[in-house]
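pinned: reference chain
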Amino acid sequence: MTQPKSWKEWEKPLIELDEALAKLRERSVTATEEERHKIDETIKASEQRRDKYIEKKYANLTPWEKVLVARAEPRPYTLDYINALFTNFIELQGDRLFGQDHAIVGGPAALDGQPVMVLGHQKGRNIQERQMRNFAMSKPEGYRKAIRLFQMADRFSMPIITLVDTPAADPGVESESRGISEAIADSMLAMFEVKVPIVSVVIGEGGSGGAIGIGIGNTVLMQEHSVYSVIPPEGCAAILWRDASLGPEASAALRLTAQHALEMSLIDGIIPEPFGGAHRDPIEAATLLKEAVQKALKPLLKQKPDALKAARYSRYRALGKIG
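pinned: its structure tokens
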């Protein structure tokens, strides 16, 4: 059976039904009272069929289908959540060494009055923005900007919240020449050294070192339909079987779903998503994310700085242990 290659292909029946419903709602506005009654009945019946379809489709998603949902184009990105959850956000740019990287955005903000430092990977909504954001694949200057924000947060005793959503770090020649591996390692080290609480949340794709570079938290959470892996499935398939089209098979082998990550103690909890995924109700998704972050932050704010640092180190030293 041929597997869909994109979220649009996989969710095509739903997309077409939603488009048809939108046209019916437009017609209902200008229709006569008798016509409106018939149209409203049609809309109601179609919505019921759609909801049953979603319920069945999302009841038992395969790992590959989770990958497609995590990559859904309407899914909320970092700036969507920042705008919905935080106030007084001021984006800080540049790494003070080379330049600006638009694949990572961040700066000080307030979460219900609590000053925090928030940063995350940012994807683009259209081809121009995707190119500008480099498809959320950060370059060395992005991770060096993150280090600057981590250290600033530490100086001003601001809790840090990171939102992870990248297929991987930028693998290009320029990034290699400017030390992408070292930048990621330095960013991880900076996160281990700060003495403020860190909550990291995988909101879409948590891929490779690009994800872990800003994913060292006291508490690490994943949204229900996000994925977290050492390599994108297509890349894994290309290495193992010399065939990137075997991404669906590789996604099963990688055990990359939030449920797998929780079983392996890689994360501390799963944030539920709205019916049919975060992309179908971004406002509800933001509400659920905010509740989870606040719940995670509350006990961390009571801990002493040295204890936070030690607990974070111990948490990562314990990863991968069996038994």
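why pinned: The first helix runs from residue 7 to 10. The mean pLDDT is 94.
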